[in-house]
Amino acid sequence: MSGGLTAGPAGEPAAGGDPLLQVRGLRIASRIQGVQRVITVGSDFSLAPGETLGIVGESGSGKSMTARALIGLLPAGVRAEGEVIYRGRNVLALPEHELRQLRGAELAMVFQDPFTMLNPLMRCGAQIVELIRDENGRPLRRAARRAEAVRRLAEVGITDAAVADAYPAELSGGMRQRVGIAASIARDPQVLIADEPSTALDVTTQREILARLREVQQGRGMGLILITHDLRVAFALCDRVLVLYAGSVLETAGAAPMEAEPLHPYTLGLLLSDPPVDRRLSQMAAIPGSVPAPGDVAGTCTFAARCEWRADACTAAAPPLTQVAAGRWSACLRVAEIGPQMQAARAGAQAARDGDAGRAASPAAAGTAGAVVTVRDLEKVFGSSHRAGRRVPALKGVSLQIGADEAVGLVGESGSGKTTLGRCLAGLERPTAGTVLVNGRDATQQAGLSRAERRRLRRTVQMVFQDPYSTLNPARTIGATLAEAIAAADEQGRDIRAAVGELLERVGLPARYAERKPVALSGGERQRVAIARALAVRPRLIVCDEPVSALDVSVQAQILNLLTEVRRELAVSYLFITHDLAVVRQVAERVYVLREGLVVEEGQTGAVLDRPQHWYTRMLVDSIPSSDEAWLARAAEAESERLGSGDGDDADDSRARIAR
Amino acid sequence: MTVITAPDSGLVGLASRRGRRRPSLLIGLSLLIVVLVATCAIFGSLLAPHPANAQDLLAGVHTASGRHWLGTDDFGRDIFSRLIVGARAAVIGPVLIALGALVIGNALGLIAGYVGGRTDYFIMRLADLVWALPGLLIAIVVVGVIGGGYYIAVAVLIVLTFPIDARIVRGATLQQRTMPYVEAAATLGLSPWRLMIRHIWPNLLPLVMANTFLNFAFSLVSLAGLSFLGLGVPLNTPDWGAMLAQNLPLIQTNPLACLAPAAALVLTATSMNLIGDWVYERLSDRGRAR
Known about the structure:
The structure holds two protein chains of two kinds.
Chain A lengths: L20 E12 L2 E13 L4 E5 L6 H8 L7 E9 L2 E2 L5 H7 L4 E4 L13 H6 L12 H14 L17 H12 L6 E5 L7 H18 L2 E6 L2 H7 L2 E6 L2 E7 H6 L4 H9 L38 H5 L5 E4 L2 E3 L4 H17 L19 E12 L9 E12 L3 E5 L6 H8 L7 E6 L2 E2 L8 H10 E4 L13 H11 L7 H11 L16 H14 L4 E5 L7 H18 L2 E6 L2 H7 L2 E6 L2 E7 H6 L4 H8 L6 H5 L1 H10 L5 H10 L1
Parallel strand pairs in A: 3-8, 3-9, 6-7, 7-8, 15-20, 15-21, 18-19, 19-20
Antiparallel strand pairs in A: 1-2, 1-4, 4-5, 9-10, 10-12, 11-12, 13-14, 13-16, 16-17, 21-22
Chain B lengths: L8 H12 L4 H19 L35 H37 L1 H16 L2 H12 L3 H28 L2 H8 L4 H37 L11 H7 L9 H31 L4
């Protein structure tokens, strides 16, 4: 795309007169060992003072590199061309020492990971005020420094002065991220760039952080650029949204108009493949394929290969971002033609019937006799049992039941014990107390069983893990991995080669994938293979531990559909562990809500999500991002409710720890 | 069921990455040296222009000439021939040591890392104990007391070397053990041996191979040191370390007599180290997860 002055939205005056930051033809490429890889092909956008711009993209879209280019923090070997104009100067052309003066003071950045962003050996207060100078340019005195740190902490909602004297390791993730934000804005920058600031945090903390960012931004009139993979988050917080895909901008528009009527098939696809939390769909709309590398689709519409409205012109040249309506820009050539069809698809999806009614679980079937797994009073304590070390209880007496052909959801935040419970069922952890009945047999008492019986017991429960990149052995081919699983099911005389092909086809992959190593597969494809491996031993229960949370949004729906399909055909049960209530709505009939090692609520998924009884469930439901103006505003209420419940929330917790 | 495939961008990228991976000039030279040494070690006396132990006492020491490319020692033996024949004694020990340490160290390291608990404690304290011994000194004492013997020296060096392998493999095993693909294999009901050997070990291969090359270079020098002290090969057997010691007095009359075996040792050891690094990179590339 050309970096012409008036060709892109860069030419469009932003909401409040002169733009604060103007990006023209930003092209980023890496060169490693002589091989050039395109990261972005040339993006144009602008940011007005006081405006919040969301940059939304999946992995490989180039969103993080774009953010880094804006403050001249690209990693070695990555170069940016084009212009990033801030106060009449091109940031990309500035020498390093001038850039350093700009960074932090004018343009600041908040990173994704609150666990590595802060120096673990420095007290939080010191990190915040490290570079603050008085009006004469001298470092502040000790007392003034501390007062300043406390004031800055209050700005991000930390009223406890003790936090200023705490080390980062003493704080929870949400607290650390708040300290990180305070440190980023300490020198009163004009532009704050937040790269996935809430992704590494729990859903309930996410809203709190987003609300703080918004508050700080509005209070100071800063420009805020929010980088995220989550359209819901972008719509909740941003004025304008820019959709980035495989290195090119596909659509920019105001958040509300874009949510109401997307003008690019990719944006539409993202919206459709985002599972709704208020109803269950029998089949989710999925975008086929996976995200390509920018270099492979340069010179064409980057989305063409996955687009159902593709025409010849789409692959002839890269379509420019053109103005479709006031404030609305789209890079789709056929947007005028297919607009009505896209709207119809959206309307159709929104009107899709509630699938809950058809698939209501029969509670009668969940008697102990028919149950695949029955868990009674399960306890698990981590830590040494004979030494006086730290003992961490992960499960404090959990009982649950999973019937035949039933999908049960297990939701909770990190630290709730949900993964530990799944691992106990799969035999990867030994419970401290309680029983796990698998097929009516006590899996915790294996002493009297023969070796073959023990293995059969193990195979009854299989597991699908979260990280698609480590779930497959990188040293072995897909075929070898599956063949081993099939052989483990010791069915003599089965044609293993044919069985591998069959399995691959069942999970929607061509049989020739058997020859490949995991490195040649995308994240979604690897997760398909992981599901095939679990199916190979004909299990009765598959424990799915966050199977889609590490995948791109456009691929998540594919995997969820696959899981539903597999279950329909093979009548296998699922224990679906997730933090995402919208996902659980799509796959599970019953749900257990776990909090600090205890089940706080259970019931039919629809009933629990629509009419949550426990305050914790209510908080989880309420923390799902929504573009409703009130959503962010309610963050403070939720916080006080949590405090009112008398449980150790993270603020409390940190105070207790500091007091010690 | 619908089959969904993306364009094979991953494979194309992989192929181009493979294509570029040609060994550098330095690695080429190292490979050449190692192949040369290996050829000498295998065919030895067939390649040598003179019998290695043929003496010409009347001729005595000579500097390099057309007949004797590297001159002769004070018994009139051809240095060049002794260098070629001596490769076998110089190399066979390090090969045995590297392989011995590989087998023992990897087995113990895998068991310690995978089984954990008391087994781990016992194995690693044993390794620590051996590690704490002053290596070469022990070798000198043992060989000195039991009496010379090349293979006794080799055995002692194996015992002294395996703790390095055991430690490295244990650490890497601990890291691999918690990987989802190992756990997934465990839920299939596979035996611990199969998990260790088929699932964990292949992923340690780059590390293991690199370390084996380092062990080879280290023991090449150690063994040569023992031979230098007269504790390695029997008298008269051509060996680089022994040649270095015997020909040291000739440094004035025929410097090549002791410099050539020294150079052979240094070049071989350096080449093996470089190749070890290269193999590590190659193998790590093979299954790169991201």
